[in-house]
Design brief:
Number of strands: 8
CATH topology: Alkaline Phosphatase, subunit A
CATH architecture: 3-Layer(aba) Sandwich
Strand order of the largest sheet: 3-7-6-2-5-4
Largest sheet: 6 strands, mixed
CATH class: Alpha Beta
Strand content: 5-15%
Shape: globular
Bound molecules: zinc ion
Order of helices and strands: HHEEHEHHHEHHEHHEHEHEH
Helix content: 40-55%
Number of domains: 1
CATH superfamily: Alkaline Phosphatase, subunit A
Distance between the termini: 50 Å
Length: 311
């Protein structure tokens, strides 16, 4: 009997320790002042988000640039990146941007019914709250990312419905001509691959899914070429390619399906090393960006779920 109560008591303890209030309590006394490293704060970041990449569709014949990049030495790549337990876009883009899992940011669907971005803001919040001015930019096809997460904090985050081609052209204009703004840290979101998946099927065997991925692969290659010229001009850029979920059939709701609950994740830099013993999750993007720029807050270090992928 005693033994049973002990088990019940320890079950109670262990279940209690995962509740969100405990995280808050543990981090409460810590300083929320944000520090930065003057030597790395001028570095640049490009995050290319592609909605609905099914990992096994990254093939030489469909997306030659992404396939070749996955084989490169100086690139962190996994095709088993771990998706949130709810495999919709809302929870996953929220985790990518905040560095915490959905149990904390509380986005559990695509309507953003009860988010907790006050306690767990996006990584852009930390960049916008230091003395050094950083030009932050976000251009998205799927507008809820702006209306619910980014528009109040990012310098340039237009709230108008645009296509993937317009996302690409707008980014190109910013990178090449600083038009209409300069971009130091840029987030992009392409949505038409997810649209092809819902319309025809998330599969390398489906022509619409394949050709849409080929088109986006071309956009990504062009953006890499632009960044390479900037790197040759002494700008220090890191590039990420991220996705929110895979897909199977014409949906991505089944969180037990490995074609859905895993996707790809890339981080690329010409001379940084990335850790190779860790399979990334949605919470790792934000800590990696802040680490790259040398931006740190004691409180965020305590609250975040992800880790930096930089060695
Ligand atoms: Zn979708």
């Amino acid at each position: 009997m005693k033994y049973i109560s002990l088990i019940i008591f320890s079950l109670f303890l262990s279940s209690c320790c995962v509740c969100e209030d405990d995280y808050l309590l543990r981090c409460e006394g810590l300083s929320d002042s944000i520090e930065y490293n003057p030597e790395t704060i001028n570095r640049k970041v490009l995050v290319i988000g592609v909605d609905g990449i099914r990992s096994d569709a990254i093939q030489d014949s469909i997306s030659p640039f992404l396939f070749a990049l996955s084989q490169q030495e100086n690139t962190y790549f996994t095709d088993s990146h771990i998706v949130e337990g709810i495999t919709y876009s809302g929870p996953n883009w929220s985790s990518l941007l905040t560095g915490v899992h959905m149990s904390k940011h509380n986005v559990l669907e695509n309507d953003f019914l009860n988010p907790n971005f006050n306690e767990y803001p996006s990584f852009f919040y930390y960049l916008e709250n230091i003395e050094v001015p950083i030009n932050t930019v976000s251009i998205v096809n799927w507008l809820p990312i702006h209306t619910h997460i980014l528009s109040s904090i990012v310098d340039y985050a237009p709230i108008e419905s645009i296509s993937d081609l317009e996302v690409f052209n707008s980014c190109k204009e910013i990178l090449l001509n600083n038009n209409p703004v300069e971009g130091d840290v840029i987030f992009l979101h392409f949505d038409e691959l997810d649209g092809a998946g819902h319309g025809y099927g998330f599969s390398a065997d489906i022509e619409e899914y394949r050709t849409t991925l080929t088109t986006i692969d071309g956009y990504i290659e062009d953006l890499f070429n632009i960044i390479d010229v900037k790197r040759a001009n002494q700008e220090d850029w890191i590039i990420f390619i991220v996705s929110d979920h895979g897909g199977d059939g014409t949906g991505h709701g089944d969180a037990d399906n490995p074609h859905i609950n895993q996707t790809v994740f890339y981080a690329q830099h010409p001379n940084l090393n990335f850790i190779d013993y860790h399979t990334s999750s949605m919470a790792d993007l934000a800590p990696t960006i802040l680490d790259f720029l040398g931006v740190r807050s004691e409180k965020y270090e305590c609250k975040k779920d992800g880790v930096s992928l930089i060695e």
